[in-house]
Amino acid sequence: MHNVSKSYGKNKQALKSVHLKIGHGMFGLLGPNGAGKSTLLRMLATLLKPTSGTITINGCDLAREADTIRRMIGYLPQSFQAHPQMTGRQFLDYVAIMKGIGSGKERKRHVDELLEQVNLADKASLAVKTYSGGMRQRIGIAQALIGCPQVLIVDEPTAGLDPEERVRFRNLLNRFSRERTVILSTHIVGDIETSCTQLAVMSRGEVRYAGHPQGLVKIGEGQVWEVELSDNEFTEFEPSQIVGARRTSTGVRCRIVSSSPPVPHAASAVPTLEDGYLALIGGERSE
Ligand SMILES: Nc1ncnc2c1ncn2[C@@H]1O[C@H](COP(=O)(O)OP(=O)(O)OP(=O)(O)O)[C@@H](O)[C@H]1O
Protein backbone atom coordinates (compact mmCIF):
# COMPACT_ATOMS: atom_id res chain seq x y z
CA MET A 1 0.00 0.00 0.00
CA HIS A 2 1.50 3.27 -1.07
CA ASN A 3 0.24 6.53 0.40
CA VAL A 4 -3.31 5.17 0.75
CA SER A 5 -6.01 7.40 2.18
CA LYS A 6 -9.72 6.73 2.52
CA SER A 7 -12.50 9.18 3.38
CA TYR A 8 -16.14 8.39 4.02
CA GLY A 9 -18.09 11.44 2.85
CA LYS A 10 -16.62 14.88 3.53
CA ASN A 11 -15.92 14.62 7.22
CA LYS A 12 -14.57 11.18 8.03
CA GLN A 13 -11.00 10.34 7.09
CA ALA A 14 -10.70 6.67 8.03
CA LEU A 15 -7.16 6.13 6.63
CA LYS A 16 -4.40 8.70 6.35
CA SER A 17 -1.41 8.15 4.01
CA VAL A 18 -0.88 4.50 4.82
CA HIS A 19 2.36 2.90 3.60
CA LEU A 20 2.52 -0.80 4.26
CA LYS A 21 4.42 -3.74 2.85
CA ILE A 22 3.11 -7.17 3.78
CA GLY A 23 5.18 -10.27 3.07
CA HIS A 24 4.68 -14.02 3.27
CA GLY A 25 3.40 -15.64 6.49
CA MET A 26 1.14 -14.29 9.19
CA PHE A 27 0.73 -10.52 9.40
CA GLY A 28 -1.11 -9.00 12.36
CA LEU A 29 -3.04 -5.75 12.10
CA LEU A 30 -3.59 -4.45 15.58
CA GLY A 31 -5.53 -1.41 16.71
CA PRO A 32 -8.40 -0.19 18.86
CA ASN A 33 -12.01 0.08 17.65
CA GLY A 34 -12.34 2.64 14.91
CA ALA A 35 -8.60 2.61 14.03
CA GLY A 36 -9.34 1.85 10.37
CA LYS A 37 -8.47 -1.87 10.25
CA SER A 38 -11.68 -3.02 8.55
CA THR A 39 -11.47 -0.16 6.06
CA LEU A 40 -7.94 -1.24 5.14
CA LEU A 41 -8.92 -4.92 4.80
CA ARG A 42 -12.03 -4.12 2.77
CA MET A 43 -9.80 -2.25 0.33
CA LEU A 44 -7.40 -5.20 0.05
CA ALA A 45 -10.46 -7.40 -0.58
CA THR A 46 -11.41 -5.07 -3.50
CA LEU A 47 -14.71 -4.08 -1.83
CA LEU A 48 -13.73 -0.44 -1.28
CA LYS A 49 -11.68 1.91 -3.42
CA PRO A 50 -9.06 4.14 -1.85
CA THR A 51 -9.72 7.88 -2.07
CA SER A 52 -6.07 8.27 -3.07
CA GLY A 53 -2.91 6.17 -3.23
CA THR A 54 -2.10 2.81 -4.81
CA ILE A 55 -2.44 -0.81 -3.73
CA THR A 56 -0.57 -3.66 -5.38
CA ILE A 57 -1.06 -7.34 -4.59
CA ASN A 58 1.44 -9.83 -6.05
CA GLY A 59 2.35 -7.28 -8.71
CA CYS A 60 -1.28 -6.52 -9.71
CA ASP A 61 -2.60 -2.99 -9.39
CA LEU A 62 -5.88 -3.05 -7.48
CA ALA A 63 -7.36 -0.14 -9.43
CA ARG A 64 -6.89 -1.85 -12.81
CA GLU A 65 -6.77 -5.59 -12.09
CA ALA A 66 -9.38 -6.14 -9.39
CA ASP A 67 -10.73 -9.29 -11.08
CA THR A 68 -7.30 -10.94 -11.10
CA ILE A 69 -6.80 -9.94 -7.48
CA ARG A 70 -10.16 -11.43 -6.48
CA ARG A 71 -8.92 -14.79 -7.72
CA MET A 72 -5.86 -14.52 -5.48
CA ILE A 73 -7.58 -13.63 -2.24
CA GLY A 74 -9.89 -15.19 0.32
CA TYR A 75 -11.76 -12.95 2.71
CA LEU A 76 -13.50 -13.56 6.02
CA PRO A 77 -15.34 -10.34 6.87
CA GLN A 78 -15.90 -9.12 10.43
CA SER A 79 -19.60 -9.96 10.49
CA PHE A 80 -19.65 -13.16 8.48
CA GLN A 81 -22.96 -14.97 8.00
CA ALA A 82 -23.35 -18.28 6.22
CA HIS A 83 -26.84 -19.13 4.97
CA PRO A 84 -28.39 -20.58 8.13
CA GLN A 85 -30.67 -23.11 6.41
CA MET A 86 -27.87 -24.69 4.35
CA THR A 87 -25.70 -27.46 5.70
CA GLY A 88 -21.97 -26.75 6.02
CA ARG A 89 -21.27 -28.80 2.90
CA GLN A 90 -24.05 -27.16 0.86
CA PHE A 91 -22.80 -23.71 1.83
CA LEU A 92 -19.18 -24.42 0.82
CA ASP A 93 -20.38 -26.02 -2.43
CA TYR A 94 -22.46 -22.91 -3.16
CA VAL A 95 -19.48 -20.58 -2.57
CA ALA A 96 -17.28 -22.86 -4.70
CA ILE A 97 -19.79 -22.59 -7.59
CA MET A 98 -19.78 -18.79 -7.17
CA LYS A 99 -15.98 -18.83 -7.32
CA GLY A 100 -16.11 -20.87 -10.53
CA ILE A 101 -14.44 -24.03 -9.20
CA GLY A 102 -14.46 -26.58 -12.06
CA SER A 103 -16.46 -29.77 -12.39
CA GLY A 104 -18.82 -31.24 -9.79
CA LYS A 105 -16.28 -33.95 -8.90
CA GLU A 106 -13.38 -31.54 -8.44
CA ARG A 107 -15.58 -29.21 -6.39
CA LYS A 108 -16.76 -32.02 -4.12
CA ARG A 109 -13.16 -33.12 -3.48
CA HIS A 110 -12.09 -29.56 -2.70
CA VAL A 111 -15.06 -28.99 -0.32
CA ASP A 112 -14.41 -32.30 1.46
CA GLU A 113 -10.73 -31.39 1.91
CA LEU A 114 -11.65 -28.00 3.38
CA LEU A 115 -14.19 -29.54 5.76
CA GLU A 116 -11.41 -31.85 7.00
CA GLN A 117 -8.94 -28.99 7.36
CA VAL A 118 -11.28 -26.91 9.52
CA ASN A 119 -12.34 -29.98 11.49
CA LEU A 120 -15.99 -29.89 10.45
CA ALA A 121 -16.19 -33.07 8.38
CA ASP A 122 -18.42 -34.81 10.95
CA LYS A 123 -20.76 -31.77 11.12
CA ALA A 124 -20.93 -31.17 7.37
CA SER A 125 -24.49 -32.49 7.02
CA LEU A 126 -25.92 -30.28 9.78
CA ALA A 127 -27.56 -26.92 9.07
CA VAL A 128 -25.25 -23.95 9.72
CA LYS A 129 -27.88 -22.50 12.09
CA THR A 130 -27.11 -25.34 14.53
CA TYR A 131 -23.36 -24.47 14.63
CA SER A 132 -21.65 -22.83 17.63
CA GLY A 133 -19.85 -19.46 17.19
CA GLY A 134 -16.52 -21.22 16.74
CA MET A 135 -17.91 -23.64 14.16
CA ARG A 136 -19.42 -20.72 12.20
CA GLN A 137 -16.03 -19.01 12.14
CA ARG A 138 -14.44 -22.23 10.95
CA ILE A 139 -16.96 -22.57 8.09
CA GLY A 140 -16.15 -18.89 7.42
CA ILE A 141 -12.45 -19.61 7.10
CA ALA A 142 -13.23 -22.64 4.90
CA GLN A 143 -15.25 -20.48 2.47
CA ALA A 144 -12.34 -17.99 2.39
CA LEU A 145 -9.95 -20.84 1.50
CA ILE A 146 -11.99 -22.03 -1.49
CA GLY A 147 -9.83 -21.92 -4.59
CA CYS A 148 -6.60 -22.02 -2.48
CA PRO A 149 -6.00 -18.23 -2.43
CA GLN A 150 -2.44 -16.95 -2.00
CA VAL A 151 -3.65 -14.21 0.33
CA LEU A 152 -6.09 -14.80 3.16
CA ILE A 153 -7.70 -11.72 4.73
CA VAL A 154 -9.36 -12.26 8.10
CA ASP A 155 -11.12 -9.46 9.99
CA GLU A 156 -11.39 -9.87 13.80
CA PRO A 157 -12.21 -13.57 13.61
CA THR A 158 -11.96 -14.40 17.30
CA ALA A 159 -14.48 -11.85 18.65
CA GLY A 160 -17.14 -13.72 20.60
CA LEU A 161 -15.28 -17.05 20.71
CA ASP A 162 -14.65 -18.85 23.98
CA PRO A 163 -10.96 -19.35 24.98
CA GLU A 164 -10.76 -22.91 23.67
CA GLU A 165 -12.24 -22.03 20.27
CA ARG A 166 -10.01 -18.95 20.12
CA VAL A 167 -6.87 -21.05 20.57
CA ARG A 168 -8.12 -23.62 18.07
CA PHE A 169 -8.87 -20.90 15.52
CA ARG A 170 -5.46 -19.27 16.00
CA ASN A 171 -3.75 -22.61 15.41
CA LEU A 172 -5.77 -23.13 12.26
CA LEU A 173 -4.71 -19.75 10.84
CA ASN A 174 -1.14 -20.42 11.86
CA ARG A 175 -1.18 -23.63 9.83
CA PHE A 176 -2.63 -21.91 6.77
CA SER A 177 -0.02 -19.14 6.95
CA ARG A 178 2.77 -21.62 6.14
CA GLU A 179 1.93 -21.62 2.43
CA ARG A 180 0.47 -18.16 1.99
CA THR A 181 0.05 -14.65 3.35
CA VAL A 182 -2.52 -14.37 6.13
CA ILE A 183 -3.56 -10.87 7.15
CA LEU A 184 -5.32 -10.95 10.49
CA SER A 185 -6.89 -7.92 12.11
CA THR A 186 -7.67 -7.86 15.80
CA HIS A 187 -7.74 -5.66 18.86
CA ILE A 188 -6.63 -8.58 21.03
CA VAL A 189 -2.85 -8.76 21.35
CA GLY A 190 -2.99 -12.42 22.41
CA ASP A 191 -4.41 -13.34 18.99
CA ILE A 192 -1.18 -12.45 17.26
CA GLU A 193 1.64 -12.66 19.76
CA THR A 194 2.44 -16.32 19.25
CA SER A 195 1.95 -16.49 15.51
CA CYS A 196 2.76 -13.28 13.63
CA THR A 197 6.18 -12.66 12.17
CA GLN A 198 5.24 -9.11 11.16
CA LEU A 199 2.64 -6.70 12.43
CA ALA A 200 1.33 -3.18 12.15
CA VAL A 201 -0.37 -1.08 14.80
CA MET A 202 -3.00 1.36 13.63
CA SER A 203 -4.63 4.16 15.52
CA ARG A 204 -7.00 6.82 14.21
CA GLY A 205 -6.39 5.94 10.59
CA GLU A 206 -2.59 5.96 10.79
CA VAL A 207 0.02 3.23 10.95
CA ARG A 208 1.85 3.90 14.20
CA TYR A 209 4.22 0.94 14.02
CA ALA A 210 5.13 -1.62 11.37
CA GLY A 211 7.73 -4.35 11.77
CA HIS A 212 8.66 -7.31 13.96
CA PRO A 213 6.71 -8.00 17.17
CA GLN A 214 10.02 -7.66 19.05
CA GLY A 215 10.26 -4.02 17.96
CA LEU A 216 6.86 -3.33 19.50
CA VAL A 217 7.93 -5.00 22.75
CA LYS A 218 10.97 -2.67 22.79
CA ILE A 219 8.70 0.40 22.72
CA GLY A 220 7.50 -0.67 26.18
CA GLU A 221 11.03 -0.74 27.62
CA GLY A 222 11.37 1.68 30.54
CA GLN A 223 7.61 2.31 30.54
CA VAL A 224 6.33 -0.69 32.49
CA TRP A 225 6.22 -0.74 36.29
CA GLU A 226 5.13 -3.08 39.03
CA VAL A 227 4.04 -1.85 42.40
CA GLU A 228 1.89 -2.86 45.32
CA LEU A 229 -0.71 -0.20 46.10
CA SER A 230 -2.97 0.12 49.12
CA ASP A 231 -6.71 0.00 48.41
CA ASN A 232 -6.90 3.80 48.71
CA GLU A 233 -3.96 4.40 46.38
CA PHE A 234 -5.46 1.93 43.90
CA THR A 235 -8.83 3.71 43.70
CA GLU A 236 -7.11 7.08 43.20
CA PHE A 237 -5.07 5.83 40.24
CA GLU A 238 -5.98 6.73 36.64
CA PRO A 239 -7.56 3.39 35.54
CA SER A 240 -6.28 3.51 31.95
CA GLN A 241 -2.66 3.38 33.21
CA ILE A 242 -3.19 0.10 35.06
CA VAL A 243 -2.80 -2.83 32.67
CA GLY A 244 -2.92 -5.60 35.28
CA ALA A 245 -4.03 -5.89 38.90
CA ARG A 246 -3.92 -8.80 41.35
CA ARG A 247 -5.24 -8.69 44.89
CA THR A 248 -2.76 -9.71 47.61
CA SER A 249 -3.23 -10.07 51.38
CA THR A 250 -1.93 -6.50 51.88
CA GLY A 251 -3.26 -4.55 48.89
CA VAL A 252 -3.29 -4.70 45.09
CA ARG A 253 -0.25 -5.67 43.01
CA CYS A 254 -0.43 -3.54 39.84
CA ARG A 255 1.27 -3.47 36.48
CA ILE A 256 1.33 0.07 35.15
CA VAL A 257 2.32 1.55 31.78
CA SER A 258 3.69 5.05 32.25
CA SER A 259 6.58 7.05 30.80
CA SER A 260 7.88 7.82 34.34
CA PRO A 261 7.63 5.88 37.65
CA PRO A 262 3.96 6.17 38.72
CA VAL A 263 5.00 6.19 42.41
CA PRO A 264 8.55 6.48 43.84
CA HIS A 265 8.74 2.85 44.99
CA ALA A 266 7.61 1.34 41.63
CA ALA A 267 9.95 -1.29 40.15
CA SER A 268 10.74 -1.39 36.45
CA ALA A 269 9.31 -4.52 34.70
CA VAL A 270 10.15 -6.39 31.50
CA PRO A 271 7.58 -5.41 28.83
CA THR A 272 5.33 -7.83 26.95
CA LEU A 273 3.92 -7.26 23.46
CA GLU A 274 0.73 -5.93 25.02
CA ASP A 275 2.71 -3.46 27.16
CA GLY A 276 4.52 -2.22 24.03
CA TYR A 277 1.18 -1.79 22.27
CA LEU A 278 -0.34 0.10 25.20
CA ALA A 279 2.78 2.27 25.60
CA LEU A 280 2.57 3.15 21.89
CA ILE A 281 -1.09 4.07 21.63
CA GLY A 282 -1.47 5.19 25.26
CA GLY A 283 -4.45 7.45 25.88
CA GLU A 284 -5.71 7.31 22.30
CA ARG A 285 -6.92 3.72 22.63
CA SER A 286 -10.45 4.11 21.36
CA GLU A 287 -12.56 6.74 19.72
N1 LIG B 1 -19.35 3.34 5.81
C1 LIG B 1 -18.86 4.23 6.66
N2 LIG B 1 -19.31 5.50 6.66
C2 LIG B 1 -18.81 6.43 7.50
N3 LIG B 1 -17.83 6.19 8.41
C3 LIG B 1 -17.35 4.92 8.46
C4 LIG B 1 -17.84 3.89 7.60
N4 LIG B 1 -17.16 2.75 7.88
C5 LIG B 1 -16.30 3.06 8.88
N5 LIG B 1 -16.41 4.36 9.23
C6 LIG B 1 -15.62 5.08 10.24
O1 LIG B 1 -14.26 4.98 9.86
C7 LIG B 1 -13.43 4.76 11.00
C8 LIG B 1 -12.65 3.47 10.82
O2 LIG B 1 -13.59 2.39 10.88
P1 LIG B 1 -13.14 0.85 10.71
O3 LIG B 1 -14.38 0.03 10.78
O4 LIG B 1 -12.28 0.72 9.52
O5 LIG B 1 -12.26 0.65 12.03
P2 LIG B 1 -11.79 -0.69 12.75
O6 LIG B 1 -10.39 -0.46 13.19
O7 LIG B 1 -12.06 -1.85 11.89
O8 LIG B 1 -12.74 -0.72 14.02
P3 LIG B 1 -13.54 -1.96 14.64
O9 LIG B 1 -12.54 -2.78 15.35
O10 LIG B 1 -14.51 -1.27 15.58
O11 LIG B 1 -14.23 -2.64 13.50
C9 LIG B 1 -14.36 4.77 12.22
O12 LIG B 1 -14.38 6.06 12.75
C10 LIG B 1 -15.71 4.41 11.62
O13 LIG B 1 -16.74 4.98 12.39
Automatic annotation (TrEMBL):
<protein>
    <submittedName>
        <fullName>ABC transporter ATP-binding protein</fullName>
    </submittedName>
</protein>
<dbReference type="InterPro" id="IPR003593">
    <property type="entry name" value="AAA+_ATPase"/>
</dbReference>
<keyword id="KW-0067">ATP-binding</keyword>
<keyword id="KW-0547">Nucleotide-binding</keyword>
<dbReference type="InterPro" id="IPR027417">
    <property type="entry name" value="P-loop_NTPase"/>
</dbReference>
<keyword id="KW-0813">Transport</keyword>
<dbReference type="InterPro" id="IPR017871">
    <property type="entry name" value="ABC_transporter-like_CS"/>
</dbReference>
<dbReference type="Pfam" id="PF00005">
    <property type="entry name" value="ABC_tran"/>
</dbReference>
<feature type="domain" description="ABC transporter">
    <location>
        <begin position="1"/>
        <end position="229"/>
    </location>
</feature>
<dbReference type="GO" id="GO:0005524">
    <property type="term" value="F:ATP binding"/>
</dbReference>
<dbReference type="InterPro" id="IPR003439">
    <property type="entry name" value="ABC_transporter-like_ATP-bd"/>
</dbReference>
<comment type="similarity">
    <text>Belongs to the ABC transporter superfamily.</text>
</comment>
